[in-house]
């Protein structure tokens, strides 16, 4: 049965660096649960990676070593997060980054997930081609998406990604594509941007 794109979990990690294969770890997870386009639950938790983070990461995220010292272990948080997501489809902005950390942290606790994983950044590159960049903050400003000015904290970023995701679904619906599915969103993310208009037209719509 096709998964509706408006019922997903949008997640974001803050981490000690760029790559779990280089020893980097997650230090915060934030997520928004959407059902039928409505926020029904959120999740946010700091997690202690077991070592001190750099002053750069402290400055970039605002997450200090003192905050992490009293945070629960990554293993404890990720077990709880696995229960939160269940088998829901997942969405993240620059999903390849978040997926690497989700996979690595779940591997530590011998857990996996069943849901599909879609990238809002790849989809935005195709559906919002006139945005100056496709960084989350730039898309939020370009599309005048409501935000409180907080960036690089996991829950705030996942909330803004969720609003961007729902905006893109609404724009597809306005083009005549009712109830976009996760399969369609993933297909859009993999389609050459020059082929997007013909694809959507083929689906029974014409971009105005």
TrEMBL record:
One GO cellular component term of this record is: cytosol
What SMART domains does the annotation carry?
Answer: EXOIII
Q: Which Gene Ontology MF annotations are present?
A: 3'-5' exonuclease activity; DNA binding; DNA-directed DNA polymerase activity
One GO term under biological process is: DNA replication proofreading
- Which reaction does this enzyme catalyse, per its entry? DNA(n) + a 2'-deoxyribonucleoside 5'-triphosphate = DNA(n+1) + diphosphate
Keywords of the record, alphabetical order, are: Exonuclease, Hydrolase, Nuclease
EC numbers on record: 2.7.7.7
Which EC class is the enzyme in? Answer: transferase
Domain spans labelled Exonuclease: 7-174
Q: Which InterPro entries does this entry report, sorted A to Z?
A: DnaQ, Ribonucl_H, RNaseH-like_sf, RNaseH_sf
**Free-text function comment from the UniProt entry:** DNA polymerase III is a complex, multichain enzyme responsible for most of the replicative synthesis in bacteria. The epsilon subunit contain the editing function and is a proofreading 3'-5' exonuclease.
Quaternary structure, per UniProt, is: DNA polymerase III contains a core (composed of alpha, epsilon and theta chains) that associates with a tau subunit. This core dimerizes to form the POLIII' complex. PolIII' associates with the gamma complex (composed of gamma, delta, delta', psi and chi chains) and with the beta chain to form the complete DNA polymerase III complex.
**Name this protein carries in UniProt:** DNA-directed DNA polymerase
Q: Which organism is it from?
A: Vibrio eleionomae
